[in-house]
Amino acid sequence: MKNITLSAEEELIRKARGLARQRATSLNELFRSWLRDLTRQTGQTKNYDRLMERLESRQSGRSFSREEMNER
């Protein structure tokens, strides 16, 4: 595992440590969890963008009325 050094405002660090205590974990583990979520979201965003690109060229074969488009 690689160590990194971060800088943040003291008040923000204090609040984050309090949150970590409430969750019975460490500030370090909260940060690792945040990094995992961040990188997962990036991958999901890329997948979504690729899907939208593929669907852009699709045609339904007809026009839909306003009522049809708003049906639930």
Detailed description of the structure:
This protein is an all-alpha fold. The chain is 67% helix and 0% strand. The radius of gyration is 22 Å and the shape is elongated. The protein starts with 9 loop residues before the first helix and ends with a helix. The model has no long low-confidence stretch (mean pLDDT 88).
Tally of alpha and pi helices: 3
Termini gap: 49 Å
Helix and strand sequence:
HHH
Measured as a percent range, the helix fraction is: 55-70%
The residue-averaged pLDDT reads 88
Number of strands: 0
Computed CA radius of gyration, to the nearest angstrom: 22 Å
- Sheet of most strands: none
Query: Which spans have pLDDT < 50 for at least 5 consecutive residues?
Result: none
Q: Based on helices, strands and strand pairing, what is the structural class?
A: mainly alpha
Please indicate the percent range of residues in DSSP E strands (runs of 2 or more).
under 5%
Shape: elongated
Map the helices and strands.
Blueprint: H1 10-22, H2 27-56, H3 66-70
What is the compact description of this entry?
This protein has 72 residues and is mostly helical.
Keywords, please?
72 residues; mainly alpha; 3 helices; 0% strand
